[in-house]
Specification:
Pfam families: TPT. This protein is mostly helical. 73% of the residues lie in helices and 1% in strands.
């Protein structure tokens, strides 16, 4: 652009490292992730109940379509420059989009075979699978305190969702498979952004969303939902519903962007822990907004989950601070003029010289 300033990129997603106390921190991104995730959960519930739009695949398709359009608009406005990828990298994007869609598909199918409580408890094991995948394939290591901090979190999710644990053999298999896929997706998302590709979160969203949209439409057609949506649009579609779905898609775009950015700035394990805490906060929202009744054990589980999330955050912050702390030199540092002395040592040496004179 000549004679006109380019729009400044959003400082929330890149640029120079921010100083402590600024908005661009990993945990501020997690806070925004929580807020948008809960907002979308409430909004989805409102659409399902107010407009009787009970088409999950179509809703997912709207989310992916709006995410792709939103990322394209941000690219045209100059907030990021799409990377030049080769054939191999484009194949990685295709496989990642398929993993994203398959994770949603398996989760939706398994819900028909198991109770909601059982589904939530098994999904709460995602951090365990994330740790296993990171150790086996990425060579990562975690401290004993990290493992210990996860125990109250997992126990809290179990207590918060205690109820009917009915399931079939196929439902059990699909729920566990969906949990493993969720862990793999989170790990792969992190590696794509901080590994060799180093993709900007919006660039990843721009490449993944159109592919996921096409795959979602195909799944919707295979399940017969697409025909039902066409019939619904002919009889019950209204301007209010169109606007509600548009706002829903916009929220989904920002949620996906924030989710990818938070994943890049934290870690795959932190994101899975955050997802667990989000599940429990969703129960709190259901209690306060939709008048859902919970028992004493469920309430105790909610408290334990929140405390477990805080415990993990404390351990994670402390270990990050230890890693960033510069090591103490084993020997006194020297310069070209001799050893570098501390302020106290310099003062003592000066006093000795003065007394001698």
């Amino acid at each position: 652009m000549i004679g006109k300033d380019r729009p400044h990129p959003l400082q929330l997603a890149g640029g120079p490292p921010s100083r402590p106390g600024k908005v661009d921190t990993s945990y501020s991104w997690l806070a925004v992730y929580f807020m948008l995730n809960l907002t979308l959960t409430i909004y989805n519930k409102a659409i399902l109940s107010s407009f009787r739009f009970s088409y999950p695949w179509t809703l997912t398709g709207i989310h992916t379509f709006c995410s792709g359009v939103g990322a394209l608009v941000m690219a045209k406005m100059g907030y990021f420059t799409p990377a030049q990828l080769g054939e191999h990298e484009n194949m990685v994007m295709l496989m990642f989009s398929f993993l994203y869609t398959l994770n949603i598909a398996i989760s939706n199918v398994s819900l028909n075979e198991v109770s909601v409580a059982f589904h939530q408890v098994v999904r709460a094991m995602t951090p365990v699978f994330t740790i296993a995948i990171s150790i086996l394939f990425l060579g990562k290591r975690y401290s004993a305190m990290t493992y210990l901090s996860l125990l109250p979190l997992l126990l809290g999710v179990y207590m918060a969702t205690v109820g009917d644990y009915s399931y079939t053999a196929m439902g059990f298999f699909l729920t566990v498979l969906g949990t493993v896929l969720a862990a793999v997706k989170t790990v792969v998302t992190n590696r794509i952004q901080i590994g060799r590709l180093q993709l900007h979160p919006l660039d990843l969203l721009l490449r993944m969303s159109p592919l996921a949209f096409v795959q979602t439409v195909i799944f919707s057609w295979m399940k017969g939902e697409l025909d039902e949506v066409v019939s619904f649009c002919k009889t019950e579609m209204s301007t209010k519903l169109v606007l509600a779905l548009l706002v829903n898609g916009i929220i989904a775009f920002f949620l996906n962007y924030v989710s990818f950015t938070a994943n890049k700035k934290t870690s795959a394990l932190t994101m899975t822990v955050a997802a667990n805490v989000k599940q429990v906060l969703s129960i709190v929202v259901a209690v306060t907004v939709f008048n859902t009744t919970i028992g004493f054990l469920n309430g105790l589980g909610i408290i334990m989950t929140l405390l477990g999330g805080a415990c993990y955050s404390y351990v994670d912050l402390r270990e990050k601070a230890q890693r960033m702390r510069p090591p103490t030199p084993a020997f006194p540092q020297t310069s070209s003029n001799g050893p570098i002395l501390s302020e106290k040592e310099s003062e003592e040496l000066l006093n000795i010289r003065i007394s001698k004179n």
